[in-house]
Structure formats: structure tokens, C-alpha cells
Specification:
Blueprint lengths: L4 H25 L24 E10 L5 H10 L2 E7 L4 E6 L5 H8 L5 E8 L6
Antiparallel strand pairs: 1-3, 1-4, 2-3
């Protein structure tokens, strides 16, 4: 075998680097006193915040049969509600809450009237992609 000082120097560098890497790996991964010293970091794509399930300040109200338009208008006015659209010949209304009440509290208030068949949020629906 031929002895070469350059080859010997490179081999010494390689062994030194390998020993440093091994010592560093050993000291961080095998520390019995601190099990959490090496935490693996995995890439998690940013979570898209879910869209609200319903439109803020909007409700659908269905009135019972035989309720006069005057009484419906009175109930809506008493509750600070503006009509966006009238559906089903004056029985179903798409409305907007004019103050800062939550949709849930407005629904609770509306369903307390005997003239109201139901009130529900204006739910959002999305098609499957």
C-alpha cells in the first residue's frame, strides 16, 4: 500500500467530522434525563378556519297559516328585524337582524310568539368539490 500524506490528512478530517456528528446526535437523542430534548417537527399545512355555519344577522322565519300581514309586520318591527325577501306567499321570510343580537337570541325571541311556526339561522351550504 502506498502512503500519501494528503490521503492521510483527508482520512483524519473525515473521522473527526464523523465523531463530532455522532457525539452531537448521541447527546441530543439519548439523554435519559430529558425525553423531550429531540422533538420531531413535522410540516402541518395551515388549517383554514372553518366558515361560519350560518350567515351573521340573518334568519328564516316561517309564520303559521292565517296570520295577517299586519301582525307579521308588527312582530318584525317589535324585534328590530328588516325583511330581505318574502318567500312562500307571505309565510316564509328571509330577514336581517338590525341590532347586535346573536342569531340564537333572536331565534329564541321569535319562537316565543305563537304566530311563528319556526325560526332558524340562514345556513350556509357548499357543494362538494
Amino acid at each position: 500500500m502506498i502512503y500519501s500524506p494528503a490521503l492521510s490528512h483527508r482520512m483524519t478530517q473525515f473521522v473527526t467530522i464523523m465523531m463530532c456528528v455522532s457525539a452531537l446526535w448521541f447527546s441530543t437523542s439519548c439523554d435519559a434525563r430529558n425525553q423531550n430534548a429531540t422533538t420531531t417537527h413535522t410540516f402541518k399545512p395551515p388549517m383554514k378556519s372553518p366558515a361560519p355555519r350560518f350567515v351573521r344577522h340573518e334568519v328564516l322565519i316561517k309564520f303559521k297559516d292565517g296570520i295577517s300581514q299586519e301582525r307579521i309586520a308588527s312582530i318584525l318591527k317589535e324585534n328590530g328585524i328588516d325583511v330581505i325577501a318574502e318567500i312562500q306567499r307571505g309565510r316564509l321570510y328571509h330577514v336581517r337582524i338590525l341590532d347586535d343580537r346573536s342569531v340564537e337570541s333572536a331565534i329564541a325571541q321569535l319562537t316565543s310568539y305563537q304566530e311563528v311556526e319556526y325560526a332558524e339561522p340562514n345556513y350556509r351550504y357548499e357543494t362538494q368539490k
